[in-house]
Amino acid sequence: MTRSEFDMLCAVQPGAILSGPGELDAWKIGGKMFTCFGHTDTRATNDDHTVVRCADTEMARMLIETGAAGKPAYFRGAWVRLDLASLNVTEAAHRIAVSYTTIRAGLTKKAQAALPACEET
Question: How far apart are CA 7 and CA 2, in angstroms?
Fold first, then answer.
């Protein structure tokens, strides 16, 4: 998967905004990041990987332990690193949706009300 393909999957999330360039290129909802590409990680270039939020730390741990995701350099808890080269569209769309939904649910009620409605799945 390319960075451009990943960005297209992020862009379809209601109210998602791409911020950057800067230290981080991040997709945000209500001002809160749900995925990012870091410019300062010396292990890989900006377009090689992304970091997304899982629903909980147990899921993040399981993904890391099974090799489906990596441990991100500067994030803790329920965040995981995804290598774009080994990511397929279905898995990417799922990881983006989980990250987006988790971050959106953590916004204040006022911030949530100001966002476009989400489609029910």
Answer: 9
